[in-house]
Design goal:
Blueprint (H helix, E strand, L loop, with lengths): L1 H9 L5 E4 L3 H13 L6 E4 L13 E2 L8 E2 L1
Parallel strand pairs: 1-2
Antiparallel strand pairs: 3-4
Amino acid sequence: YFSLLMARKVEPNGTVHSFEPIPIISERLANHAIKNKYDQIIKIHSVAISDVCGTAQMYVLPSNKTIASRL
């Protein structure tokens, strides 16, 4: 949602970097970007980011309809 809003603000020459580690949400975002003709503006990075270096285990609850996750 926010990536699409920001794409609208920076078009036609800007770029929006979207970080989404959950594959199904990343896929949905890519589909919405294509449908809204923002696929050249939104750059999707399928990773999580943090303010510290390292790795963490991420859990995605498959039965959760909101596609929520937790570290």
